[in-house]
From TrEMBL:
GO terms for molecular function: glycylpeptide N-tetradecanoyltransferase activity. Residues 93-252 form the Glycylpeptide N-tetradecanoyltransferase N-terminal domain. This is Glycylpeptide N-tetradecanoyltransferase. Belongs to the NMT family.
Length: 453
């Protein structure tokens, strides 16, 4: 996962948003244009505001990005930048499975002071160790103001879905002190890419202690989790990252909806818009006290079959989406306090569904606040209630439950409600990847039906 946070101006969702990534992109683009001009590549600077020049800047910046060497990823069965747009390469697995007897039986070598461990997330002790490693070393925003703070309950939920393998929850310890210094996980998932339903691993929570960064430990972690996934006869994986690696199947963006604008402004998550006062901003984001749609209620165990049917029907329209059965739905969508919330609309059957998961962030070094409580849009289906109204109800219940901000990616049909419900665009982008599986087209976010935690 990647921390997508943006200092957007409360109340003014416009192109005047300044984010560090945006500035960086522009710097790259300007540098590249200068290089291009030096090399007599047709100049884009004559009309820097034209759409054509925008496209060229994007294209050139993209080239700079893809020309960066990736010593590790270039050796892996993933789409390579040099193959972009090559229609002769077949869709599907890049490499065939190898016989299980040929899969390396011993773990990869670690530098001498370290040892592999398998993390049994059932035990409170192990769970606490993992929680502490991530709470202190996992994803931060560019300005190091916030850091993801996945709760222990969340980690147990995220890592123990139906059919999970404890061997895919991998830690690295310092032999001498036994301190946990790195972590990576996989969980099994059936993911459909076009017409093929593929058994995959969803890889998440890659983390190396801050003091051990840039020592090429991450590639060893990735190779080890891959080996253990192979040992279960699984050959594909899905993952997301804020960084651009070879090669995203899609690039998505987070949007943020203020629920508690005063706190968001106080902690520096957002700032007061031009010509806005705090009281106008609070009024702008005010929500009703209770949901509006008749029949809107919390999902219960008895709803699992109906919700599964609804979701399965809905997810068919996307090019990449999970293939969820009732066991999956019970695990991933049945409400769990402060982990996953799900609501549905019942009016002669279940017609609509919405859900969000809970992922707080630590506010780093703030006198008044230690945590930002964020809800993340998960899977939503509307067949009868307009999606806009359904998501407005989701905002209302999230506000009522004390969340400060509601986040959503621009995946599935989310774009249809983001602006109208006063979400502002986030900083940076989230790329989606498949391991050992080629798609011959980059997907628009709206063609993706998958949310990873
Ligand atoms: C991500 C993290 C584990 C990488 O470790 P690191 O010490 O910075 O990098 P290393 O020297 O060990 O390895 C570098 C290699 O890992 C790759 N890499 C870095 N981040 C990656 C990611 N999120 N996913 C996959 N590969 C990644 C790099 O691209 C590089 O490979 P390349 O040469 O082929 O490009 C570490 O920075 C970290 O813990 N960050 C905070 C948590 C985080 O961002 N996790 C990832 C969430 S998506």
């Amino acid at each position: 996962m990647y921390f997508c946070y943006n200092l957007y101006e409360s109340g003014i969702i416009s192109s005047s948003i300044v984010s560090s990534n945006y500035i960086l992109d522009l710097e790259i683009a300007v540098y590249v244009i200068e290089m291009a001009e030096d090399n007599n590549v047709s100049s884009t600077s004559e009309n820097p505001n034209s759409d054509e020049s925008e496209t060229s800047i994007d294209a050139i910046a993209q080239k700079v990005q893809v020309s960066k060497r990736h010593k590790f990823w270039e050796t892996q069965p993933v789409g390579q930048f040099k193959d972009l747009g090559n229609p002769s390469l077949p869709e599907g697995p890049i490499e065939p499975p190898t016989p299980l007897s040929e899969v390396k039986q011993e773990p990869y070598n670690l530098p001498v002071p370290y040892e592999w461990i398998t993390c049994d997330m059932d035990t409170e002790e192990m769970c606490s160790e993992v929680y502490n490693l991530l709470a202190n070393n996992y994803v931060e925003d560019d300005e190091n103001m916030f850091r993801f703070n996945y709760s222990k309950d969340f980690l147990q939920w995220a890592l123990r879905p139906p059919g999970y393998h404890t061997s895919w929850h991998i830690g690295v310890r310092v032999k001498a002190s036994k301190k946990l210094v790195a972590f990576i996980t996989g969980v099994p998932a059936r993911i459909r890419a076009k017409d093929a339903v593929v058994n995959m691993a969803e890889i998440n929570f890659l983390c190396v202690h801050k003091k051990l960064r840039s020592k090429r430990l991450a590639p060893v972690m990735i190779k080890e989790v891959t080996r253990r996934v192979h040992l279960e006869n699984i050959w594909q994986a899905a993952y997301t990252a804020g960084v651009v690696l070879p090669t995203p199947i899609s690039t998505c963006q987070y949007w943020h909806r203020s629920l508690n604008p005063k706190k968001l402004i106080d902690v520096g998550f957002s700032r007061l818009g031009a010509r806005m006062t705090m009281s106008r901003t609070i009024k702008l984001y005010k929500l009703p006290d209770s949901s509006i749609t008749p029949g809107f209620r919390k999902m219960e165990l008895r709803d699992v079959p109906a919700v599964t049917r609804l979701l399965r029907g809905y997810l068919k329209q996307f090019i990449v989406a999970p293939d969820l059965d009732e066991h999956d739905v019970q695990h991933w969508l049945l409400p769990k306090e402060d982990v996953i919330d799900s609501f549905l609309v019942e009016s002669s059957g279940v017609t609509d569904f919405c859900s969000f998961y809970t992922l707080p962030s630590t506010v780093i070094g703030n006198q008044n606040y230690s945590t930002l409580k964020a809800a993340y849009s998960y899977y939503n289906v509307s067949t009868k209630t307009p999606l806009l109204q359904l998501m407005n109800d989701a905002l209302i219940v999230a506000k009522k439950k004390g969340y400060d901000v509601f986040n959503a990616l621009d995946v599935m049909e989310n774009e249809s409600f983001l602006k109208e419900l006063k979400f502002g665009p986030g900083d940076g982008q989230l790329q989606y990847y498949l391991y050992n599986y080629r798609l011959n087209q980059a997907l628009r976010p709206s063609e993706l039906g998958l949310v990873l935690l």
